[in-house]
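Lecture 7 notes: from sequence to structure.
We start with the chain below.
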Amino acid sequence: MDFDQPGMFTRADALASGYTDDDLRRSRADRTLLSIRRGYFVRSAVYRTLDSAEQHLLLAKAFLPDSAGDAVLSHVSAAVLHGMPVWGIALDKACLTIGRSYASKRGRRRILHGTRLLDSDRMIIDGVPVTVAARTVIDLARTEGVEQSVCVGDQALHSGLTTAFELAEAVDDAAGRTGVGRARHAVGLMSSRSESVGESRSRLLFHNLGLPTPLLNQWVYDASGAFLGRVDFLFPRGVIGEFDGEGKYESNPVRAVIDEKNRHNRLHDLGWVVVRWDWRDLSKPGVLAERLLGAFRRAEAHGAPIGTYRSDRLP
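Predicted structure tokens for the same chain:
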């Protein structure tokens, strides 16, 4: 029999639609169906269209019905449901939290956390119970690396999912839990002005290497007040830094590259030293640091750039 379900379905759903256990077994054997976990299925053709975060969310939703009634998606599973970036975070296990105090239970495909869970820590997204954004960020900051946590927190702040005040409250509420000190440190490094994982990682790299702290996402103008462009990082010493991530020029890459080159030339003519880097450069922090230090030296030799900059656009 052909399966035409557009999303995940259960064994009970299949039987109610007229399929049999033999149908399910044969479809799994010929790989028409994929088992998310025992009793939960999805068409292989559908599964292949999903990215890793979407595949993880199927796994998390498959575990939710069999968990306690007050269980919610949390940690990385909550981050995925909120639409937060999960760069560098493992997606092989669904994460849920139940509002009871006991040691976390780790299975092959699920982690069930037992932690105090207030009503204010919960919300519903598309019918799925989940920790609110601030609690999600802090839970991840307690259990993941600082770099991964800051990337999540930056996006949550930038997109308005949470605020710095809410994060501070969530850290205080987590007092006494494992990793709260690490979470407090990570929150101190988060910024609402970083617009991508690449920008967040770049900012942390500057911090860790002791480089000067740049201004983020500044609007640059020439001496007459004409707008030149919005830049990722601006060092007041006369250096502009730009992170070139994948997808930055997807709409019209040829036109965008030409425009970017023209903008680069105008900034250079006004005395700015422009340094560009991409994902590969972030894996070589020492090399990137030397490029930036060299740019600072050239900027000092040139003198102050012409024009102005500000954190928002002129009317």
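Points to note: The first strand starts at residue 9 and ends at 10. The chain has a mean pLDDT of 92.
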